[in-house]
Specification:
This protein is mainly alpha-helical and 560 residues long. The chain has one domain: Cytochrome c oxidase-like, subunit I domain (Cytochrome C Oxidase, Chain A), CATH 1.20.210.10. The protein contains 22 helices and two strands. The structure holds heme-as, protoporphyrin IX containing FE (HEM) and copper (II) ion. This is Cytochrome c oxidase subunit 1.
Length: 560
């Protein structure tokens, strides 16, 4: 009884950053819950089953749902998760408290921006999809809300740089601890990457208020993809961070190399941004040699993921062998597959292998002609962001919510089931989408189930369409189980002392940074940031200069 009173007291009094992290993360999961709700409807659409009429009169059409799906999942959930992990982990590692006033300002900015953008989204006044390509024009509140939401991440950048500076002052000459190094390079990458979106937002806001009559669609697309490619690493790197820092330990082993992990994050800082034209191979107005340069740079940015494949697999092998696994592959079975967090990462990484291979197909300039704007593309990225990134977040929530709140995980069996089902559903859906896109050229972003002509044209693909229906049902159940588990965990009244005192499961490294030349080199973060800026200026400067000096503004349109 005494214990209960003690822990009902105030868990956050001695660690206010826990409350901040909890609120950020749960807001992100709330966004994911609503965004994911539309997923099965879209999967049914590609199964030839039009369930959208069921959503009327609340949601008007396919594109309103698809916009909510893309915006809430890919922009809102991902950013909020990054603002949780990439602030909380370095704070814990360094034993420093982030500036709590600014941390809360960032939370309220994110929430305020989200609510402002939500109004036109829910009223069908902003069904412009998460890429908001001009000349599609949304209500100003959408652009303004989105801008405020994204700008809240700039405070997160500051929070981490500030903690890093304080730590360095107190520890001169020491090598930055790994989580902090990852967070610093991550936020610097995001700062450089987000500039395209910031400039685009200025145009779009002015345009939607009527201060300027038109915007140039090609310039808007180019600014969008300047941010739009690196944003996928903004989604991915929190998952990688958790995979390096916590997964080996949770699996019962160690990280094989700390310096290699630093190299990976450094390469992402260098190569994430100057590659955006691989989304614009089909756009006129960009000379092919520029597209070729971005193709080559895209192949470079796959390297850190290949290093990650090696390092994480090797660390898992160390864990499996420590658990008693024998022989060539026996260590795989010896991994703790019944731990829902480990399971989520293992399955997520398995999906990431074909997802990454598909990315190389997309990036291969001429092969891209065959897949661009087909459902192959949602097939690709549901393996990446829909599976690995989302499963890493789901899996992490299973220990992080107890860690932050002191409340034990409820319904562990359901947690495990949700991860198997999510993986299975995504696997089936993405398999079907790849096939339908590559071989039958079925377009993405198409409400085919609402069009008898389209259904007639694509009838050869009926078997694959059936798989989409199956996947939609499985994913719906998976999502239901997952959200039940986390919200029931967070909202229960029970707290346990052991949970409150539990530390972040940071992994020990076998090969350490002390004395490593590689680690010394990566430590010169500002120098590498400068090189990243130069690369961006070289890869984008001349093209952007030309576009800015030859603008062809067009007025807005509403097609929905
Ligand atoms: Fe992509 C389109 C190229 C990675 C997301 N991508 C998209 C879109 C999204 C997206 C959302 O070049 C659509 C945008 C839209 O709406 O139009 N992508 C790539 C390439 C990579 C890549 C080369 N993408 C991602 C990631 C994403 C993401 C990551 C989200 C998180 N993508 C493209 C291109 C397009 C594109 C074109 C435009 C297509 C078009 O025409 O529109 C690379 O970064 C991928 C590198 C990854 C690997 C895999 C490494 C494997 C690992 C797993 C190891 C396994 C282990 C398991 C450890 C090389 C790390 C062990 C397990 C045991 C059980 C033992
Ligand atoms: C688009 C299904 C979860 C991000 C789509 C599409 C389908 C789909 C079929 C293609 C729609 C079209 O092109 O017309 C699902 C299902 C999910 C799910 C069944 C799980 C229940 C997620 C998650 C994320 C995500 C977790 C990211 C975190 C996206 C994005 C698009 C998309 C960014 C593109 C939207 C656009 O083209 O504007 N989804 N999805 N999805 N999905 Fe998902
Ligand atoms: Cu890309």
């Amino acid at each position: 009884m005494a214990v209960k009173t003690l822990f009902n007291y105030d868990v956050y009094a001695s660690a206010p950053e826990k409350k901040y992290a909890l609120y950020m993360m749960m807001l992100g999961f709330a966004a994911l819950a609503l965004g994911t709700f539309f997923g099965p409807f879209q999967a049914m659409n590609y199964g030839g089953l039009d369930l959208y009429p069921l959503l009327k009169p609340v949601f008007q059409n396919y594109y309103q749902g698809l916009t909510l799906h893309g915006v809430l999942n890919a922009i809102v959930f991902t950013q909020l998760f990054a603002q949780t992990i990439m602030v909380y982990l370095p704070a814990r590692e360094l034993g420093l408290r982030p500036n709590m006033t600014l941390a809360w300002v960032s939370f309220w900015m994110a929430l305020g921006g989200l609510l402002l953008a939500a109004v036109p989204l829910l009223l069908n006044e902003a069904s412009v999809l998460y890429t908001f390509y001009a000349p599609l024009q949304a209500h100003w509140a959408f652009y303004l809300g989105a801008a405020i939401f994204v700008l809240s991440s700039y405070l997160s950048i500051y929070l981490v740089l500030d903690m890093w500076a304080r730590w360095r002052k107190a520890n001169p000459g020491k090598i930055t601890p790994l989580a902090t190094f990852m967070a610093v390079t991550f936020w610097l990458m995001w700062f450089l990457a987000s500039l395209g979106l910031v400039v685009e937002a200025l145009f779009l806001i002015a345009w939607s208020f009527g201060w300027i009559a038109g915007v140039d669609p090609l310039l808007m697309r180019t600014l969008f993809w300047y941010t739009g490619h690196p944003i996928v690493y903004f989604w991915l790197l929190p998952a990688y961070t958790l995979a390096y820092l916590t997964l080996p330990r949770l699996a019962g082993g160690k990280l094989v190399s700390d310096p290699l992990a630093r190299l990976v994050f450094l390469l992402f800082l260098l190569f994430s941004v100057p590659v955006g034209f691989h989304h614009q191979f089909a756009d006129p107005g960009i000379a092919p040699y520029w597209k070729m340069i971005h193709t080559v740079l895209t192949m470079m940015v796959a390297v850190p993921s290949l290093i990650t494949a090696f390092t994480i697999a090797a660390s898992l092998e160390v864990a499996g062998r420590a658990n008693g696994g024998k022989g060539l592959l026996g260590w795989i079975g010896a991994l703790p597959w019944n731990n829902p967090t480990v399971l989520a990462f293992l399955l997520g990484f398995l999906a990431f292998i074909p997802g990454g291979a598909g990315g190389m197909v997309n990036a291969s300039f001429n092969l891209n002609q065959n897949v661009h704007n087909t459902v192959w593309i949602p097939g690709h990225f549901h393996l990446q962001v829909g599976t690995l990134v989302t499963m890493a977040a789901m899996g992490t929530a299973f220990w992080l919510i107890p860690h932050l709140t002191g409340k034990p995980l409820v319904a562990r069996g359901m947690a495990v089931a949700s991860q198997w089902l999510w993986f299975l559903g995504m696997f089936i859906m993405t398999f079907a989408l790849h096939w339908m896109g590559f071989l039958y050229a079925i377009p993405r972003r198409a409400h085919i189930s609402g069009s008898p002509i389209a259904m007639e044209a694509y009838k050869e693909s009926a078997a694959w369409m059936a798989l989409n229906i199956v996947s939609g049902v499985i994913l719906f159940i998976a999502a239901f189980l997952f959200f039940y588990v986390i919200f029931a965990t967070a909202l229960q009244n029970r707290r346990e002392p052991g949970q409150v005192l539990a530390e972040v499961p940071f992994t020990e490294a076998i090969s350490k940074p002390q004395g490593s030349r590689l680690a010394q080199l990566t430590e010169r973060v500002w120098f590498w940031f400068g090189i990243a800026v130069v690369l961006v200026v070289l890869a984008y400067g001349p093209v952007l200069f030309q576009m800015f000096s030859n603008m062809n503004p067009v007025p807005g349109q509403r097609l929905w």
